[in-house]
Each structure stands twice: as structure tokens, then as C-alpha cells.
């Protein structure tokens, strides 16, 4: 059975985008007047093999075969629709999620904020530097990491979550966990969003927890588990396989009366992917707009940067992180999960200013 996928491409920005939209020569991406497109790339695959992919101008769609035309038009409804706010996050402009790992063994900052006072100070610094949401985690999911007990994970982060909600009641907190017990405890203490790297596959009770509480969640893709995910990961086509995974999960949520407006998509850079997988996802990331949800990109300090720059690698990998963030921004990605909030915020502000200058 053949299946078609639609990716918006050939983007325009700022005043030029507004002019094209006004003259009906382009379409708005996610309902925004600041970014528009006038072409789509359509992938066609039979079972698991890509048969072909073609790029069509918006004007040419009406002359295509009926089956392809109907699929593209249905996808365009989601691609051009405005994304609703989630927990106060306005997706009309890029949003920064600050990473707070309260662990002794996370891949880049393990142990730095394991002390509760240091964790709180780091969160405070990230908010002051422009983070609109803080992602708190008490268990490392770096390649090769092992699972810890739910109670131990919760005890690591409980005090910090409570204190942050007291000081910043309007700043949403995201909880990075795979366990329903930790999710439930976090929600009781004011957590706004659940970020489960397993895509709700690790704990069968997880979906029931977020559904019963109507809590938004980040639908994250990972092949395997943290302990096995980098052991020769394989895909028929990584981009379309992840798309199918997202589509299936969204369908499941809808069938169980969970609102699609509560879902954020994260393709999981570095989670069960080789360098070529990561690059393909990032280069074609705009395909996920056709699923009708905001997109999150988490590339901060990831190993793929080292694989590209080799001898020019640095501890913080700020340059490589910023490059991937700005490319994602040019593709309409709305949410960026990062460690170095101030530097990334600075880059986004300058990049956006240039894009929106006549």
C-alpha cells in the first residue's frame, strides 16, 4: 500500500513573507504571518521503501493526481493552522526550554546540579536568561544509562519542583521522566507538562496518568532503551518511520479522548540514531508540521556535533548547538530544549532580528 507524506519547504520570512501572504502567493506556516512557504516536498513509499519524492509549487497541486492532491490538501490544513498555546507557551515565537538535570550521571552536566541549592540557582539563572519553561529530570537517560527506582528519582527532584513553583508560579515546569509514579507525584506538586523520552512506552500506566489529569505531554521518539539505543540502530527510513510513530501515537490519544492540542512532538535527536539519522531528521524536520502539533528540537551538546566537528569539539558544544537551533528556527520549529539558555536566546534574538528586517 502506497503512502504519501507532505513537507512544507522553500520558506520566506518577515516582511517578505507577509507580502507573499497578502498577495496569496504563499501559505502561512502554522498560522504565522512571519514565515511562509510556496512549495511542498511529497514523499511516496510502498510499505517501507521510498518510491520517490517530488517538490511541487503550491499552484501545481491542483493539477496532480486526485489521490496525491487530496492527501496534500488535507496535510495543508494542519500545516497552515495556528498552534494553540500550551501552559502559556505562545508558539507564535520561538520558546526556550531550559534543561535541569538533578542527577549524578547525566551525559554533559551530571553532578553539577545534584545539590538542591545548586539546582534551584541554575533554574533561577535559566529563567532570568530567557527560558520560558524548565525541564526537570531526576534520572539520566544518556546512552548506556541504567534505570533507577521511582522513589529515588522522585526524592531527587521533589524539593526543587516545590521551591520553583513557589518562586515562579507562572513559569511552567516540564517533568522529564518515564515513570507513572513520578509523573503523578510531579503533577500533584504543580508540574505542567510531562516529557517522557520513551514515548509513553516504558510504563503502561503513564498515558492513564496524563489523560486522567488532562496534562500536556511531549511525544518523544526513541528506538530501544537508553541502555541499548545506540547499539546499531536501524530504520527503513528514519524520517518517515518517526512520522509513522507520531501519527500512530496521536491516533491512539484521540481514540482515548485525549486532546491533540496537548501534544508536542520531539523526534529524539540522539536517541537510537546514528549521525546520518540525526542529520536526515534535522534537515527535513518541517515534515512534522503536517501532523498539526508544535515541534520541539533537542540538540543541546549532543554527540552528533562532535562527530561532525571532530577536532574542533568543545565541552559545551555551544556553536554546534546554536547552529542546529537556528536551522530549526528557519524550518518553523517552535520549542528548543537547551543547557546554555542565555547564549541560545542571544542567537535566536539576533537571527530573528535579521530575518525580520526589510
Characterization of the model:
The chain is an alpha/beta fold and 358 residues long. It has two domains: 2-80, no CATH class; 95-355, Alpha-Beta Barrel (TIM Barrel), CATH 3.20.20. 37% of the residues lie in helices and 19% in strands. It has eleven helices and twelve strands. It has helices spanning 14-22, 66-80, 116-128, 150-167, 180-188, 206-213, 238-255, 275-283, 303-309, 318-330, 341-355, and strands spanning 2-13, 27-28, 35-46, 49-57, 95-101, 133-137, 173-176, 193-196, 217-220, 263-266, 296-297, 335-338. The strands form two sheets. It has an eight-stranded parallel β-sheet. Strands 1, 2, 3 and 4 form a four-stranded antiparallel β-sheet that branches. β6 (133-137), α4 and β7 form a beta-alpha-beta unit. α3 packs across α4, α5 (180-188) packs parallel to α6 (206-213) and α10 packs parallel to α11 (341-355). The longest helix is centred in the middle third of the chain and has 18 residues, at 150-167. The chain starts with a strand and ends with a helix.
